[in-house]
Structures are given as C-alpha cells and as structure tokens.
Design a protein that fits this description.
Layout (H helix, E strand, L loop, with lengths): L3 H12 L14 E4 L2 E4 L4 H8 L14 H11 L5 H9 L14 H13 L19
Antiparallel strand pairs: 1-2
Length: about 140
C-alpha cells in the first residue's frame, strides 16, 4: 500500500491542473521546428505554457467506488494491484498521473480485455496476462 504522505502528495498534484499530468498526448506527436521534424515541445517553457493553457483545467472525476473496482476485477478475472486500486479509491477514477493520465477503471478493463483478444502489437505476440494498460 502507498503511504499516507505519498497519497496526499499525489492528491495535491492531481488537484492542480498545471501538474495533473506529465505530458498531454498531443505533445508526443511530431511538430515542425525550423523546418525539421522534432518530437514534443522544444523547451521546458513550451511545456509549461501548454500545461497552463487549460488542457487539464476541468475537475477530476470523483474517486471510484469499491463496487466499481469489484465489478472491474470480476470482468478482469484478477485483482487490480493494491497501489493502483488505492489511487482509484482515494484520489480519482483516472485523469491524473504519468503521460496523459491514468485511465478510468472501466477504460482500463475494456482495453485490457480487447488487448487480450486482439493485441495491439505484432501478430503472434499475445498481450501479457495481468498486464494492465493503465495509461491513457
């Protein structure tokens, strides 16, 4: 389980729209810089400007309920890792964290089940059992 101090630090960061996520998805695409292709923002100032632009300005979703988690675990056929479960129950049902944020529980569950049936990678390489695609 996560310590109370760590949960509180994550809660504070998630509540701040400028720090809620690390890299909005559109930043990971190609951009032109001086006529050449480059990946992502060209400086930390660009990233700060974009994060303050309102990309994450909406409220966080409410925390997931124990019933929502239990239904997801029933569909998955296994328990969601304790730390991720704790974040869903104590912070929000997704929308914060690394990259563009943690996926809501229902999205995580649906995506996992789809990936197990039709993996997004090379044919012949199944999606690993119990590997949850938790990032948006």
């Amino acid at each position: 389980m996560l310590t109370a101090d760590l949960v509180e630090r994550v809660r504070r960061r998630a509540a701040d729209p400028t720090q809620r996520t690390d890299a909005p998805l559109f930043l990971l695409g190609h951009t032109f810089a001086g006529g050449k292709m480059a990946i992502g923002p060209q400086s930390g100032d660009d990233l700060d400007r974009i994060n303050r632009s309102g990309q994450n300005a909406g409220p966080l979703p409410p925390a997931a309920s124990a019933a929502t988690i239990a239904a997801a675990e029933e569909r998955l056929g296994f328990a969601i890792p304790a730390e991720l479960r704790q974040l869903y129950l104590e912070i929000a049902n997704g929308g914060f964290g690394p990259g563009d944020g943690i996926a809501p529980v229902d999205t995580l569950t649906t995506r996992y089940l789809e990936y197990r049936t039709d993996p997004p990678n090379e044919p012949g390489y199944p999606w690993p059992r119990r590997l949850l695609p938790f990032n948006l």
